[in-house]
Amino acid sequence: MRVRPATFAAAAGAALFLLAAPAASAAPTATETLTVDRTGRIASDGTITLSGTYRCTAGTGPVYVSSSVSQNSGVLSYGIGGTKAVCDGEEHRWVNTGRPAAADALRPGTAHVEATLLEMRPEGIAVKPAFHAIQRQEITLVRG
After folding, report:
1. Which tens digit of pLDDT belongs to each residue from 83-114?
2. CATH, residue 99
3. Where's the DUF6299 domain (predicted)?
């Protein structure tokens, strides 16, 4: 079958027009946020409890709220638990607990917390971390 030049030109022009046309914009997504409460707790056994709120939208992989805390020099940071996030655009509370290897590593007083809202996005046979939000904040650790 022979294609007529005019028909071919019209089809090619239509294809180029569709490719060049602006794509329909997606519905706006809720803002992703992460907060850290101003006070953290140290239990008698050295267990640290940190908390706050988060809001995220669905991703392609599981999403977690992780946290770490440091004091004084800030050179040594201790991971404090992780919470699986529900990414439905609503605000949720998170609470992470953990105990540094040395029970007396952290003391009541000023501390620096870094919390992350992290998605483990599948990519082929591996997973790739994708940050949704990061919050760095000074808090006060108290006994209790």
Report:
1. 999 999 999 999 999 999 877 789 999 999 99
2. 2.60.40
3. 31-143
Rounded to 5°, the CA angle 133-32-100 comes to: 35
User: 34, 117 in Cβ contact below 8 A?
Assistant: yes
Task: List pLDDT tens digits, range 51-69.
Answer: 999 999 877 899 999 999 9
In the chain, what percentage of residues exceed pLDDT 70? 78
Range of the domain at 49: 33-143
Tally of CB atoms within 10 A around 40: 24
Query: Which amino acid is residue 6, in one-letter code?
Result: A
Within a domain: 115: yes
CA 136/CA 69 separation, integer angstroms: 10
Single-letter amino acid, residue 38:
R
